[in-house]
C-alpha cells in the first residue's frame, strides 16, 4: 500500500516532469514485484501450515490486516490505468477492470466478515484495547470505490463504465459511513483512555485513510459520472453535473474533517517524540498519501494553487517517509527483528490444551 501510493503520487503530482514519471514507473514495477512475492509467500505459509489461518482469522488484531490485501492490489490497478492503458491500449483497460472486479469482491468480503467475526468472538474486547486498525477492513471498500472511478474512466464501453460507477458508489456508501462510525468509537477511546501505547502511536494516522480516499473517490466518481451519464442516457439531463457538484462538496467536507485527524496524529507524534520502530510505521505512508491525493484533486477541481501546493508538500513528505520506513524495514528484515506473528501464541495455547486433554484421556 505504501509503495503503491508513492508511485501514484509521483505519477499524478500537480507539478510534474518526465523524470518523475519514469521514477513512478520504476516504483510501480517494484510494487508489483513486492505484491506478487508476498502473495506467494502468504499462500505457501497457509498451505504448509493450515492451522495458522484459523487462529489468524479470529485474532482480534492480526485479522484486521487482511484488509490491506485488496488495498495494495488497488494501487496496482490504479497505476495500470495511469501507465499501462495509455501505452498498451484497450486490452489493458479490460485487464484493470477484471482486477478491479476481483478487488471489489475481496473488499466486500473483508469489510463484511471481519467485523462480524469480532462481534461473534467468545472473548470480550475492552474499549481501552481498541486501535485505529479497526478501520483497515472497512477502508478496503472506500479504496475500491476510488479505484473504480479511475477504471471506469478508461473503459471504452460506456455501459461497462456505468456499471462500474454504480458499483463504486455502493462501495463508497458501505465504507465511508461505517468508517465514520468506527472513528466515533475511536475518538471515545482516546478521550477516555488517552493516547495509544508508543508501539502503535503511528496508528493515529489511520483515520486519514477513509477521509482522504473517501474525499478523492467521491470527487472522481462525480467527474466520471458527468462524462458517462449523458452517453448512456442515465437519469435526466444534467444529472451528471449534479453528481459532480455534490461529489466536490462532500469531498471538501471530508478533507476538512481530515485536517482535525491530521492535527491529532502530528500532535501525538510530537508529544511522544521517541517510539520504537515496527511495521506499524507504514501507517505513515498510505493514509497521508491518500490524503495528499485528495488535496491534489481539490486543486484540480477548483482550480486552486493553494491546494496544489499543499498537495505537493504532502506528497513530498510521503515520499521521504517511504524512503525512511523502507530503509528501516530492510534493516529489520536483515536482523530478523520484525518477524513477529501474534496469532501464533494462540496456536501454541490451542496445541497445549490439546496435549493436556490427551493426557487426561490417557489417564
Automatic annotation (TrEMBL):
Q: Which UniProt keywords apply?
A: Cell membrane, Membrane, Transmembrane, Transmembrane helix, Transport
Q: Where does the sequence pass through the membrane? A: 19-44, 64-88, 94-119, 131-152, 164-188, 200-218, 245-267, 279-300, 306-327
Any one Pfam family match given in the protein's UniProt record, by short name: SLAC1
GO terms (molecular function) for this protein are: sulfite transmembrane transporter activity
Q: How does it sit in the membrane?
A: Multi-pass membrane protein
Where primarily located?
membrane
User: Where is the protein found, in the record's own terms?
Assistant: Cell membrane
Give Gene Ontology CC terms.
plasma membrane
Kindly indicate whether the keyword NAD belongs to this entry: no
Q: Which function does this protein serve? A: Sulphite efflux pump required for the secretion of sulphite as a reducing agent. In the presence of sulphite, cystine in keratin is directly cleaved to cysteine and S-sulphocysteine, and thereby, reduced proteins become accessible to hydrolysis by a variety of secreted endo- and exoproteases. Excretion of sulphite mediated by an efflux pump also represents a detoxification pathway for dermatophytes during infection of the epidermal stratum corneum, hair and nails, which are rich in cysteine.
Family as reported in the entry's similarity comment? Belongs to the tellurite-resistance/dicarboxylate transporter (TDT) family.
Q: What is this protein called?
A: Sulfite efflux pump SSU1
Amino acid at each position: 500500500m505504501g509503495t503503491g501510493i508513492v508511485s501514484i503520487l509521483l505519477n499524478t503530482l500537480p507539478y510534474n516532469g518526465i523524470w518523475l514519471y519514469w521514477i513512478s514507473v520504476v516504483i510501480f514495477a517494484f510494487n508489483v514485484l513486492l505484491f506478487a512475492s508476498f502473495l506467494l509467500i502468504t499462500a505457501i505459509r497457509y498451505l504448509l501450515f493450515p492451522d495458522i489461518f484459523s487462529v489468524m482469522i479470529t485474532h482480534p488484531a492480526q485479522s484486521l490486516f487482511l484488509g490491506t490485501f485488496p488495498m495494495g492490489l488497488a494501487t496496482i490497478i490504479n497505476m495500470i490505468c495511469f501507465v499501462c492503458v495509455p501505452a498498451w491500449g484497450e486490452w489493458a483497460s479490460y485487464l484493470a477492470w477484471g482486477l478491479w472486479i476481483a478487488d471489489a469482491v475481496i473488499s466486500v468480503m473483508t469489510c463484511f466478515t471481519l467485523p462480524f467475526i469480532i462481534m461473534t468472538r467468545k472473548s470480550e474486547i475492552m474499549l481501552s484495547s481498541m486501535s485505529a486498525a479497526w478501520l483497515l477492513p472497512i477502508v478496503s471498500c472506500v479504496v475500491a470505490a476510488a479505484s473504480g472511478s479511475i477504471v471506469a474512466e478508461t473503459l471504452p464501453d460506456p455501459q461497462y463504465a456505468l456499471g462500474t460507477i454504480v458499483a463504486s458508489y455502493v462501495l463508497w456508501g458501505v465504507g465511508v459511513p461505517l468508517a465514520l462510525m468506527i472513528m466515533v468509537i475511536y475518538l471515545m477511546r482516546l478521550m477516555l483512555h488517552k493516547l495509544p501505547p508508543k508501539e502503535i502511536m503511528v496508528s493515529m494516522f489511520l483515520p486519514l485513510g477513509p477521509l482522504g480516499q473517501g474525499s478523492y473517490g467521491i470527487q472522481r466518481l462525480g467527474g466520471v459520472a458527468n462524462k458517462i451519464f449523458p452517453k448512456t442516457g442515465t437519469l435526466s439531463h444534467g444529472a451528471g453535473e449534479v453528481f459532480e457538484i455534490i461529489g466536490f462538496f462532500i469531498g471538501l467536507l471530508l478533507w476538512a474533517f481530515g485536517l482535525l485527524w491530521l492535527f491529532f496524529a502530528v500532535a501525538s507524534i510530537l508529544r511522544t517524540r521517541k517510539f520504537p520502530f515496527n511495521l506499524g510505521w507504514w501507517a505513515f505512508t498510505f493514509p497521508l498519501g491518500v490524503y495528499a491525493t485528495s488535496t491534489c484533486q481539490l486543486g484540480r477541481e477548483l482550480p486552486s494553487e493553494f491546494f496544489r501546493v499543499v498537495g505537493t508538500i504532502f506528497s513530498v513528505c510521503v515520499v521521504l517517509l517511504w524512503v525512511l520506513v523502507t530503509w528501516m524495514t530492510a534493516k529489520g528484515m536483515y536482523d530478523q527483528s520484525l518477524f513477529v506473528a501474534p496469532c501464533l501464541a494462540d496456536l501454541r495455547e490451542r496445541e497445549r490444551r490439546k496435549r493436556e486433554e490427551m493426557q487426561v484421556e490417557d489417564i
